[in-house]
Amino acid sequence: MKKIIKPCGLHCIKIKNLGVIIGGQRILEDINLHIHCGTLTAIIGKNGAGKSTLIRAILNDIPHEGKIEFKDSENGQMQRLRIGYVPQYLNVEKHTPVSVYDMIASYQSDFPVFFKKNKKVYEKIKDSLRIFEAESLIDKQVCNLSGGELQRVLLSMAVMDEPNLLLLDEPVSGIDQNGMEIFYKRMEYLKEHFDLAVILISHDLDYVKKYADHVVLLDERILAQGTPKEVYGSEAFRKTFAEAEVGVC
Q1: In sequence order, what are the beta bridge partners of 175?
Q2: Which residue intervals of 59-197 are DSSP H helices?
């Protein structure tokens, strides 16, 4: 990935009037977001609020209204938005003979990867894994990875092609408290060293309050957005999480 050599803010992602209707039911309406590189934007809300639907719409995985634009403010020209994505779950059958190298290389090479390792691709993958301290996992079978190890591998895979935007759909589901701290520290590292924006869906309100730069409270529409302090202190937050024991900074 490209290290930032100028102050962040050269690039931004604009989501304009995004809406989603599925089966005749309105899931999202009038979503407007302005996201800069070097920031972690957390999407929070109750179950069924449309958080994962928003991710799918950004990925263009489902039909949607509105526009998603990427702007390079150095020359003002629209460019193609490169997206990295880490899903909430990845189901891998036990005893599947696929190594971490095999899985990632299959997306990096036009040739079959099971016959012979490509040294150049191998080193590229290892370099990407090293960002998340996962280089030792390169020859390990994916089906034998722990939850934390798989998370690090998927993150490495997501950032290999230098995305402008990294989408994370509850990537720490099932991870213990120590793993959560490590994950958010890695997000801090990405923000500080690489030219990308991060959108994270999370139910972990305490961690969001501690690490997010921008918070979006969603329930079909955007109910509130701003700094964690602004959103957590809003009436919309109190109504949405009336029973949540979360202190306001």
Answers
A1: none
A2: 100-108, 119-131, 147-159, 177-193
Q: Is the pTM of this model over 0.85?
A: no
Termini Cα distance of the chain: 34
Structure tokens at 110: 């036009």
Residue 64's nearest CA partner among 13, 114, 28 is 28
* β-pair type (165-169, 65-72): unpaired
Distance (Å) of CA 43 to CA 53, 125, 140, 160? 11, 30, 33, 24
Contact call for residues 70 and 36 (beta carbons, < 8 A): no
What are the residue ranges of helices labelled H in 59-146? 100-108, 119-131
88 — pLDDT class (breaks 50, 70, 90)? confident
For the chain, the C-alpha Rg in angstroms (whole number) is 19
Strand order in the sheet with 25-36: 25-36, 11-22, 65-72
